[in-house]
Amino acid sequence: MANTIEECDKMINACKENNIKLKVYENFTFYPPIMKAKQLIQEGVIGEVNSIHIKTLEAGGGGGWKVPPSAWKWRYDAKTCGGGLEVGSPCVFDDGFHKFWLALHFIEEKIDKVYSWIDRKVMDLPAYLMWRYQTPEDALVHKYGTMEYNQLPDMYLPSSYYAEDDFISLTGSKGAMWINQATAGGNVMSDSEIFPAIVIFRDGKLTFINLFFLFFMLFFLYFMARNIEFSYGPSFLIKLFIISGLFSALFYILLRLSLLGIYPLNEPIWVGDGYISGVYVGLAWGGIYGLISYIIFPMMRREVRAFIPMRMSGRSFLIILVSIRLIFGLWYAFSGLFYLLTYLPELGGILGSYLVYKYNFIKR
Known about the structure:
Layout: H1 5-17, H2 32-42, E1 49-59, H3 69-72, H4 78-81, H5 90-106, E2 111-118, E3 127-133, E4 144-152, E5 164-172, E6 175-179, E7 198-202, E8 205-209, H6 212-232, H7 234-258, E9 269-270, E10 275-276, H8 280-296, H9 314-333, H10 340-343, H11 346-359
């Protein structure tokens, strides 16, 4: 926001006097792995978070995008970069602010005390910081956070971003979470299977969440939606999504009621990646499966050419689509019948889409 508290106060007062809204934007919180981790924490996957550790690796051997030295000059000047160090503070004060924000983003408590050790020879590296959150003295577990900046002068890190990345570990009352791709998606570490975006340990089991498939699916869904919109118009696209979602929600409700005797409606159901506590899950995925199916139905007896690079009839593709949900749902049902609520409601979206295709359901 600014280099000093006084500068921040001047900005706030100037906006108040002129009736102008002042906003401070933090971009790191919208990075997909961070958003997913926050969602999982809000759903109680690892319980109440009581500690966070942020580790940053700064590769001095290059590999990231090219930044001319002149663009870095202001970061090494205490007057322009801030931080109170004679060598400037491009890491702890500039880049470090984003990491401090994440510390408050994941543990929404005020900070009580901060301790730090920061090197000042060439730049503010290495640096080690520790802070304590404001928690009641009689709390069972007090909340702490730590952050370390490490410079690896000779390490080469190929990346489409800066030649650095961050690793965040979170400890909760029920488990632990590791975020291996905290900021720099696109480097050789984040693209490898060794460093999945998010790792969760709970109930004696490890769960890996890799978001590469998510990016692929978003591109695929965008292409598919544009295809339907171009052929039938935006109004049809929206109605098809809603009808498919409603049928998926209907499937969800029927399955939920069938499990009522085992899992009461007022208790959220643990499903591994989070909680199923409402019909909205069925609505969203049912709508997506409805859109996919609608492109397949006209090509049931001929080769699908719309969006898959393989020779396959529409009927075969639809069978595979349905089988994937059935196989996973029935397989995990051996561990708990509630897994059926995770995998089967989308089949209702396919049914709703078929009714639209077969009986012109939208006009009726």
